[in-house]
From TrEMBL:
Pfam families: OEP (PF02321). It comes from the Bacteria. It is found in: Cell outer membrane. SUPFAM superfamilies: Outer membrane efflux proteins (OEP) (SSF56954). The keyword Transmembrane applies. Transmembrane segments: none annotated. Keywords: Cell outer membrane, Membrane, Transmembrane, Transmembrane beta strand, Transport. Belongs to the outer membrane factor (OMF) (TC 1.B.17) family. This is TolC family protein. PANTHER family: OUTER MEMBRANE PROTEIN TOLC (PTHR30026). It comes from Zobellia barbeyronii.
């Protein structure tokens, strides 16, 4: 019964492993999907579009403003003019004068043009400031992309590590299962006791639990990866477990160019330029503003008939007119209560603060690069040691296996050799991906994370 359960257990996991290999998600494909679909990167891209719109000529202040106006009025007149004790020339009494439903309308329309010829150069420096702001937004988007790719690879490498660990635990389970078969045969022929069978069964149980836990962690981590690349959470795939490290000479060259490419340093430079333009924009308040105005208008009046003299009615009239006007203005705020002076002083202080921030960031980046390089070298050395440790434990395990089959060592000693090999293999897997992730973090600090092969 136990052997049937174990056989079914192994068949289940081997079947799942085969079906999962139908699709392989390479590092390059994962990067492509992330750049195209990741929510955070899409938001950053929209922020760049907004900054691009802000730096355009439509937001520069260099274009004139044109407004149109229109209006209409309507009135209706009903009036009676009485002439008491007045007579016509023939002696007959003068009749009252009545005007009914006399309509009057008026219509008007116009265009007004305003254009600023000179505003103390504030418009020019603000336009340049928006250009710098656009470049800063691009750098912020690049930082978002770099951080997202680091997040991607931290999860991708965890999937790869768990995948390799899964294979290690499958192999360990197969070895422990084979031990049960051998122990049962030996017991039947009186070569060992029931204790060897029980020990093998305990080891199979432990290996099965390890495999189950690893599979569950792997499934969860794959779902995390699906979130980063923004694809279906039920998407099945395998990842690439091959890791290639950047040659040391190339890495040293990239480190030497870090100050020219590090995204944090570049952002401080853009912020410093923005603060410089803030000073110039605020200083424009000391200078006058010169503007041009223009207007074009049309008016139409249709008046109702009216009575001005006894017995005489003046008929209605239509009157239209066109007007054209041009003008120029000069405005100079000779004293604004010190507001402009305060703005200029504060912007200069902000510029000095940004210079201090730039110096601080430069020192911090140097420190981070040295720390990241030391960490990378240490982890790479550990990985190399773990590789050698795996070879040593593989040799020890093979010799122990031979001795166990010859009956020269106990099952407990053989199991210890197996555990030592399993620990060495899982530690090597952990060291490999830790070293690669440390390398990517170092590449981000050099500003070359997006320019290397993964």
């Amino acid at each position: 019964m136990i052997k049937q359960f174990i056989a079914a257990f192994i068949f289940l996991f081997l079947t799942v492993g085969i079906s999962a290999q139908e699709k392989r998600l390479s590092k390059e494909e994962a990067v492509r999907l992330t750049l195209e679909n990741n929510f955070g990167i899409k938001v950053a891209g929209n922020q760049v579009k907004i900054a691009d719109n802000n730096q355009g000529v439509l937001n520069s202040g260099y274009l004139p403003s044109l407004t149109g106006t229109a209006g209409a009025n309507y009135s209706e007149l009903n009036s009676t003019t009485a002439y008491p004790d007045q007579f016509n020339t023939d002696g007959s009494p003068r009749q009252d004068l009545e005007i009914n439903h006399a309509e009057s309308q008026s219509f008007n329309g116009g265009l007004n043009l305003n254009y600023t010829l000179f505003d103390g150069l504030g418009r020019l420096y603000n336009y340049k400031r928006l250009k710098e702001q656009y470049q800063l937004t691009e750098l912020q988007a690049r930082e978002t992309i770099e951080n997202t790719l680091l997040q991607l690879f931290s999860i991708y490498f965890e999937v790869a590590r768990l995948t390799e660990n899964e294979n290690v635990f499958k192999e360990a389970l197969a070895i422990s299962t084979d031990r049960i078969t051998r122990a049962e045969y030996s017991f039947e022929y009186g070569q060992n006791t029931k204790l060897d069978i029980l020990n093998a069964q305990v080891d199979v149980t432990n290996d099965s639990i390890n495999l189950l836990n690893t599979k569950q962690q792997l499934a969860n981590t794959k779902r995390d990866l699906n979130v980063v690349v923004n694809q279906s959470l039920s998407e099945k795939f395998q990842v690439d477990t091959i890791v290639r490290f950047v040659p040391r000479l190339q890495l040293d060259e990239l480190i030497g160019q870090a100050k020219e490419n590090n995204v944090t340093i570049l952002q401080t430079e853009r912020n410093l330029a923005i603060n410089e333009y803030d000073i110039k924009v605020n200083s424009s308040g000391y200078l006058p503003t010169i503007g041009l105005t223009g207007s074009y208008g049309w008016n139409l009046n249709q008046s109702a008939p009216n009575s001005f003299l006894p017995g005489q009615v003046i008929p209605g009239s239509n009157r239209s007119s066109l007007t054209l006007g041009l003008g120029a203005s000069l405005t100079w705020n000779l004293f604004d209560g010190g507001r402009t002076t305060t703005l200029v002083r504060n912007s200069k202080i902000a510029y000095e603060n940004q210079e201090l921030v730039q110096e601080q960031v430069a020192i911090e980046v140097d420190r981070d690069i040295l720390n990241a390089l030391a960490s990378y070298e240490n982890l790479l050395t550990i990985y190399q040691i773990q590789e050698q440790n795996v070879l040593t434990n593989e040799n020890n395990f093979e010799r122990s296996k031979e001795q166990f089959q010859l009956g020269r060592i106990t099952s407990i000693e053989f199991r210890q050799a197996q555990i030592n090999l399993l620990n060495a293999q899982t530690n090597k897997n952990l060291a490999k991906y830790d070293a690669k992730l440390a390398e990517l973090q170092l590449l981000q600090l050099t500003g070359q994370l997006l320019n290397v092969e993964f």
